[in-house]
């Protein structure tokens, strides 16, 4: 049973903070420091949002605000901007009222940095901080709430000549670069695909996301902050009106029947669902409904936001049982479950996880597959924490390509290809798994719904543009890079920051200098901005097989040496 987050403790006294009266880990101490700094600034009345009197009730509510948000909020927020913290607190409180959701704030913000002519093009991060701290008079508008100019710089923030103003001191000629933007803050009920809806909403208004921060509270709400450019059609108030109009339109399309309950009641009551079973299209050619009397549950292997994975047996066969938790299910999840069963029952390939059957009668919603005793490629990559030798990389990449080539030949787009969804059996064969968001292409061959995981996602998917099977090729390139480096893609950016960089700045993971030239070429082709320039998996297979012959690796068999990645799997069992 999951342990719920305890109620927020009473706010600590200032005297306790300095004396170390509150024992906390590093993040807990940082949360406390930021809370005390914000409180001190509000007491000094330097903040416009400061209440007339800082009462014990206000102190308690402010501490509860920090406590309901993840520690990352305190680490990221600009504590000097106490007004912003109070605004976030107010918006989250307003979001409790169904009639006021989403609670929304829109304002103009400004990002500035200093360029010293004597220093050339290089920018000292410390100098940039000095600029923001010591030149407030140069700023017409406040900075973003999360003080993230360094992140904006990392994403290659562009400036025009009109954004540059010169200042002079006795020693240097200094240029102040400033660029007005809009900061949009949403607070509403947290739910699956909310972030997707919000980014889609902004894109429809022609806004380019330069920076984003998303937080989920412990009581079921979401606080999402975007710094955007591209609004030239009117005032800030008009932008806010357009955002609300678009938000309610998207909500109405997603949920035809309005649900104005609170997060807690949604969890308890759920959405309106089919009363007996999930309807799976069938051609009558196969029988896949599992007999529950023959299904035996073993140990829990993993847990996710929507359900749990168990090891078990069915008719004496070792199986994996994916359990969709009834209390967590939504209409979208029902659709994904039905689609996954529909797709998996039709696929049969050595490099695709084998479907055994499913239970579709509520409350028992299960998908049963072969059990992959080798675990996921992700686990082995990041537990081992090192790059692998070229022969092992080529063999794993070939297995993935064979499975994906088969899926594409059968008009199936996976849409969430990443190392977490690549599993290994006892014979070290890598297989494509998890078809929860996979879809069968229609006759046009294009799709428009955004899905998947940002770090592996193709730019056309991030941008909510029509896309086809080449989106999986882009994801494969990120997987191949992961195999080469043993690192998480864009590890120093949040997933949303990575997505912004991929789309707007064309960033890609840095390829190691010692990578084989033909693999470098393959990576660059596969993650090309234009899907038409990417190879399909049949071509990728040919490239990998030629390269394998060149380096003396047999991709059809298993490497006999007892060293490297694949042998480590055997030793780890």
TrEMBL record:
A GO BP annotation:
signal transduction
Provide the ACT domain boundaries. Answer: 183-257
Q: What keywords would UniProt list here?
A: ATP-binding, Kinase, Nucleotide-binding, Phosphoprotein, Serine/threonine-protein kinase, Transferase
- The question of whether Phosphoprotein is a record keyword is answered with yes
User: Could you tell me which residues belong to the region Disordered?
Assistant: 1-28, 257-278
Which molecular-function annotation in GO is an example for this chain?
ATP binding
Q: Specify residue ranges for compositional bias: Pro residues.
A: 1-12
Which InterPro entries does this entry report, sorted A to Z?
Answer: ACT-like_dom_sf, ACT_dom, Kinase-like_dom_sf, Prot_kinase_dom, Ser-Thr/Tyr_kinase_cat_dom, Ser/Thr_kinase_AS, Ser/Thr_Kinases-Pseudokinases
Enzyme Commission designation: 2.7.11.1
- Which stretches are annotated as coiled coil? none
Write out the catalysed reaction.
Answer: L-threonyl-[protein] + ATP = O-phospho-L-threonyl-[protein] + ADP + H(+); L-seryl-[protein] + ATP = O-phospho-L-seryl-[protein] + ADP + H(+)
SUPFAM superfamilies named among the record's database cross-references: ACT-like, Protein kinase-like (PK-like)
KW Transmembrane helix (keyword) present: no
Q: Where is the Protein kinase domain?
A: 295-547
Superkingdom in the source lineage: Eukaryota
The family note in this entry says: Belongs to the protein kinase superfamily. TKL Ser/Thr protein kinase family. RAF subfamily.
Question: PANTHER family of this UniProt entry?
Answer: OS02G0120100 PROTEIN (PTHR44329:SF64), SERINE/THREONINE-PROTEIN KINASE TNNI3K-RELATED (PTHR44329)
- The name under which this protein is listed is non-specific serine/threonine protein kinase
